[in-house]
Amino acid sequence: MTVARDMLEASPVQIDLGLDAVAAAVDACMISAQACTSCANSSLAEDDVAAMRRSIALCDDCADICTTTLRVLSRPFESDRVVTHRMLGACVRMCSDCAEECERHGAHHRHMAICAKACRACARACGELLEAEAFQELEKLAGG
Amino acid sequence: MTVARDMLEASPVQIDLGLDAVAAAVDACMISAQACTSCANSSLAEDDVAAMRRSIALCDDCADICTTTLRVLSRPFESDRVVTHRMLGACVRMCSDCAEECERHGAHHRHMAICAKACRACARACGELLEAEAFQELEKLAGG
Amino acid sequence: MTVARDMLEASPVQIDLGLDAVAAAVDACMISAQACTSCANSSLAEDDVAAMRRSIALCDDCADICTTTLRVLSRPFESDRVVTHRMLGACVRMCSDCAEECERHGAHHRHMAICAKACRACARACGELLEAEAFQELEKLAGG
Amino acid sequence: MTVARDMLEASPVQIDLGLDAVAAAVDACMISAQACTSCANSSLAEDDVAAMRRSIALCDDCADICTTTLRVLSRPFESDRVVTHRMLGACVRMCSDCAEECERHGAHHRHMAICAKACRACARACGELLEAEAFQELEKLAGG
Lengths: 144, 144, 144, 144
Description:
Chain A is an all-alpha fold. In chain A, 77% of the residues lie in helices and 0% in strands. Chain A has six helices and no strands.
């Protein structure tokens, strides 16, 4: 339904990290960014807002980090692999935090359950992208 | 495929502008914001970049305005209808500009054709939302 | 201290809306966007968070709208005056709402008082820019 | 001139990374984000746009990463130190890339020289923040 894959395929730049894996991560970031934006706002409207302040704070950061990650991934021309790697690392950690916290409230608030699922999917898609062969050299260097 | 509609439905706040119309506008903004981000980057990589400088500049603004519009629409709690109306007005105009310019290059660059289509769809979805009954009072006041 | 004025002056594009007025609006948007981001987070940490939910929701929208407004103003090349006018209109209204709400809590929370002042200054700077001669024609057309 | 330091000081949350260092990084990110946004647009308007396509692409990513970094730093409540560390790492690398490329054009275009200086200052401020004692434990864990 989104056009992320079509847009990446139409780019004159070759997608070294893999067309399908990047498109999947872009889509997952879009969905997670929107879900977190909406989830934080819904939580503010709930009677038990005080119990959800941690989740709101995490959703705020998660929405911004996912949005910037999807923008960086959507710009393959002249992109720096080290920057992409670090943004993906930030995004995976952020989405995992946010998913864990939203899951705790998922039984009481459906927006939390949906948001947690979107964050988990985003952590997974960005985590899989970090496994791309094009990143292996970087990790060897950093680990060595 | 996105969760915008589910998230809005799960909000404790009633969606006065209409659940389906708001969800459609959020989805269209997400797609258009990503397409514009990608299109501007692809154009930078093309040999005829000089011919596309107007389109790149418009895509840059369009990506930001669509992103902020979808965030405002994703936060119905305590939202100000006048602000929403003005953001939608900015978004419709911006997307129409951007679509028109990208269409001019659509025959030569597939990323332009896809982006133009995404911007047209966003202009239409946000334009339809501006027709919502909840906005009619505002327009009467402004027009009177 | 910021470089907004220097950057606009160094642009090959002439700033029709007036160099000083645009630079002042960009600076005010930067300050207001950061203040609102910080204010919302501080409010989440306060014991009386439930009393501040409206202010948090307004700060969230205000931070995004100010950020997009300063980006649009920072891109004079090929910009559409109607879009700029509408973004400024959204920004003035949003900042006024946010300032009014944060002022209500200003006596109890210093972050609210500082944020309210930053939003007022931004509403004023963007409002003054809307008075630019270059916009007068637009308003005549819309009002006629 | 900005209120970042005042806002952080007024937060009920203690700033473990150091009030002055965080405020300096927030200010540097704000300035760099705006400079990059403006620089990319000015470059599009120059006759030799084709020579500056790498710089434009880097400025686009840099503006977004700086904006998200300043937002994450402006939200100390419930923030995850690992996420902050990774965002700062992405920001330092991005700003260094962007500064290096813009410096190459600094003699011919004043907007490039100003932007390069803003990016260098941001890389330095975020790099200094990465030296904060509160981060040392993390690095020991990662390095061990």
